[in-house]
Design goal:
Number of strands: 11
Oligomer: single chain
Shape: elongated
Radius of gyration: 18 Å
Strand content: 15-25%
Strand order of the largest sheet: 1-4-5
Largest sheet: 3 strands, parallel
Number of helices: 2
Helix content: under 10%
Structural class: mainly beta
Length: 182
């Protein structure tokens, strides 16, 4: 995670599979702060080694609430820390990940994830940099696509339409009618 010399707040994040001389996955390899005068507050996070069995480890920082107990986040392809720095791995979440729909929407300040898809799917933001790769057809049975839409890019209405057809096709996990604006 790193070293800091100011108070920080970390939300909606995943810190997983880091390595230092103490080993992979320990609290020390995930979080290190050398100066007790500065604090880190974690909320809605999954930090390996910091919340075993749901009991927050005080040396990791301040428990701001709603942190997930240590559990594999189920990345598509977990990066190997022994080969760092690298661009290998895929930290998108697989279905069944405990990090899906586990975040705090009020801590979000972006409309889209790193893939350009709506940052909040299924009503609650996922932990990490990406939203899950599937969407459920809305109760209306319709998904909307409009390249000029400026809403949530969730496909649930004209205001929150996907901005490209590929997003609607990629995310769709069940039969649904797709309407595309001219």
């Amino acid at each position: 995670m790193g070293y800091w010399a100011v108070d920080i707040a970390i939300q909606n994040s995943i810190v997983w599979n880091n390595e230092d001389s103490s080993g992979i996955g320990t609290a020390e390899s995930s979080i290190y702060h050398a100066d007790a005068a500065f604090t880190a507050t974690f909320s809605h996070t999954l930090v390996q080694g910091c919340n075993p069995s749901g009991a927050w480890v005080a040396s990791c920082g301040i428990d701001g609430g709603n942190n997930l107990a240590d559990a594999d986040p189920l990345f598509v392809d977990t990066p190997n820390p022994s080969t760092a720095p690298h661009a290998n791995g895929n930290v998108r979440l697989l279905a069944g990940s405990p990090a899906i729909d586990a975040g705090d929407n009020s801590a979000n300040n972006t409309a889209v994830d790193l893939d350009g898809h709506g940052r909040i799917q299924n009503g609650v933001i996922d932990l990490g940099a990406y939203e899950t790769a599937t969407a459920v057809c809305p109760p209306s049975g319709l998904l909307y696509v409009n390249h000029a839409a400026t809403g949530g890019n969730a496909g649930t209405s004209w205001a929150d339409a996907y901005t490209n057809l590929q997003s609607a096709l990629t995310f769709l996990s069940e039969p649904c009618e797709i309407w595309v604006a001219r």
